[in-house]
Specification:
- With about 450 residues, this protein is an alpha/beta fold.
- The chain has 2 domains: about 1-20 and about 360-454, Arc Repressor Mutant, subunit A; about 25-360, tm_1862 like domain (pyruvate-formate lyase- activating enzyme, Alpha-Beta Horseshoe).
- About 35% of the residues lie in helices and about 20% in strands.
- The protein contains 15 helices and 19 strands.
- The strands form 5 sheets. It has a 9-stranded mixed sheet with strand order 9-10-8-7-6-5-4-1-13, with helices on both faces. A 3-stranded antiparallel sheet has the order 14-15-16, with helices on one face.
- Strand 18 and strand 19 form a beta hairpin.
- It is globular and about 60 Å long.
- It starts with a helix and ends in a 17-residue tail after the last helix.
- The structure holds S-adenosylmethionine and iron/sulfur cluster.
Length: about 450
């Protein structure tokens, strides 16, 4: 019954709300001047978080939607790392003092391609410019095909203590159809190398909706993934946007599962993981019940940022590297994606900021509502800063931008509104973004920049 209703909304294209407003609504009027001011004004009484983007891979997987580039040589990566260090030194120098750091995330692309000496030099610079908390988390994304014992040891020596590995699927036919062949043994060997080196917090990424993928294949992938005993898993619906991403045109669109089949695949993964004791986190993550994500969710403190769900409660996210997006109390800033432009900016002592979004008080309020919905599947407006809970019209209807959508969702039993509270019914978890979108002032339903809802 719930599936038929979910599929009714499947054509709605909605953002994943890793920020609000979302990146397509950033503007070019926000740039370096704003970023310099925002950095100078940052209050450093709470730790900040760091994100470092490494936009290189050895080969492109055809499904990939990340900002990255294939290279078989180390030279471009070495040059890029020197530029990344320039940006780190520049930005650290613009802060009003030494910032404490509790979370570092290396994303990509494939950060595990960074040559060991460059990694060590970059982490030494970070430790020189920032005060790392003794229990600071350092996470990095790894391509399992490229994790050797030496790579794992280099990352452990650099301080990494969490690894995120792209599994996607263990189905060989699907792996071939997406140009990413990696048998179970390769992934298991990568996990062993990481654990032996002391990196024992393991996340796995799974994808459904890939060409030739089946429900049975998803069940097998879950069974195999569980053998690796990950702490967390993230499950993403394949976003097919060949108009924007040329390499996705290599994917046989005829072999892509339809929406009803995608939903069955999502259910197979979700049921397999929850039956094994994992707790569903927000839209698309799963964690062991003793994992910080599960504990933060139970306490209503889960957060959402560009990396997905997190227990990171930093005062700001300082982002380094081409295309990286940072979040400061005043708003968001994004670096230029093109590598040449990124390099010239930092070599000239300029921050490579090209777009961003200064937050209005209404943006902040809507951001808080959307973040709570995405994390907890519910929000009580009376608990949101900036909302007057005593106003006679304080209820989700008053705040909604698309009231027709909200009315339909409530009519279909997807969401329940009770006074100042709105809750997404558990059976409709895949529609949490659709519910959140009813409160988004920027969303133009006519534009198809985002992936489908399910
Ligand atoms: C930067 S990659 C992971 C690190 C490493 N490069 C790897 O592939 O193993 C981040 C994750 O995004 C997900 N992803 C990439 N492209 C996607 C797409 N088009 N649709 C849905 N998920 C996607 C995959 O699960 C992938 O593991
Ligand atoms: S999935 Fe990972 S390895 Fe494959 S192209 Fe994307 S970032 Fe690179």
């Amino acid at each position: 019954m719930s599936d038929a209703i979910i599929l009714r909304y499947e054509n709605g294209r909605v953002p994943r709300y890793t920020s609000y407003p979302t990146a397509p609504h950033f503007d070019a009027a926000t740039g370096e001047r704003d970023y310099r001011q925002w950095l100078a004004r940052l209050v450093l009484d709470r730790p900040v978080s760091l994100y470092l983007h490494v936009p290189f891979c050895r080969d492109l997987c055809w499904y990939c939607g990340c900002h990255t580039k294939a290279t078989h040589r180390d030279r471009p990566i070495v040059d890029y790392m020197a530029d990344l260090r320039r940006e780190i030194a520049l930005v650290a120098g613009l802060l009003p003092g030494r910032a404490r750091v509790a979370h570092v995330h290396w994303g990509g692309g494939t950060p595990s391609l960074i040559p060991a000496a460059d990694l060590a030099e970059t982490v030494a610079l970070l430790r020189d410019r920032f005060d790392f908390a003794p229990d600071a988390e350092m996470a990095a994304e790894f391509d399992p095909r490229l994790v050797t014992p030496a790579v794992a040891r280099a990352w452990a020596a650099a301080g990494a203590n969490r690894a995120s590995l792209g599994v996607q699927t263990f189905d060989l036919e699907v792996q071939e159809a997406i140009n990413r062949v990696q048998p179970f043994e390769i992934v298991a060997a990568a996990v062993d190398s990481l654990r032996n080196a002391g990196i024992d917090r393991i996340n796995l990424d799974l994808v459904y909706g890939l060409p030739h993928q089946t429900v049975e294949g998803c069940r097998r992938t879950v069974t195999e993934s569980l053998r690796l005993q990950p702490d967390r898993l993230a499950t993403f619906g394949y976003a097919h946007l060949p108009q924007r991403l040329r390499h996705q045109r290599l994917i046989d669109a005829e072999a892509l599962p339809g929406s009803a089949e995608r939903l069955r695949q999502w259910r197979a993964i979700s049921e397999g993981l929850t039956a094994a004791g994992y707790v569903a986190i927000g839209l698309d993550h799963f964690a062991r019940s003793d994992d910080p994500l599960a504990l933060e969710q139970a306490g209503g403190r889960l957060r959402r940022n560009f990396q997905g769900y997190t227990d990171d409660d930093g005062a700001a996210l300082l982002a380094f590297g081409a295309s990286a997006i940072g979040a400061l109390p005043e708003g968001y800033v994004q670096n230029v994606p093109a590598l040449a432009a990124y390099a010239s900016a930092v070599r000239e002592g300029r921050t490579p900021t090209v777009r961003g979004k200064r937050l209005s008080s209404e943006d902040r309020l809507r951001r808080a509502v959307i973040e709570r919905l995405m994390c907890d599947l519910q929000v009580d407006l009376a608990t949101v800063d900036g909302i007057d809970a005593y106003a006679p019209d304080c209820n989700p209807w008053m705040l909604a931008v698309d009231r027709d959508l909200l009315r339909r969702l409530v009519g279909d039993g997807v969401a329940v509104i009770d006074g100042t509270r709105i809750e997404v019914v558990e059976a409709f978890r895949p529609l949490v973004r659709t519910v959140a979108s009813a409160f988004d002032t920027y969303l133009d339903p006519a534009q198809a920049l985002h992936a489908v809802a399910v």
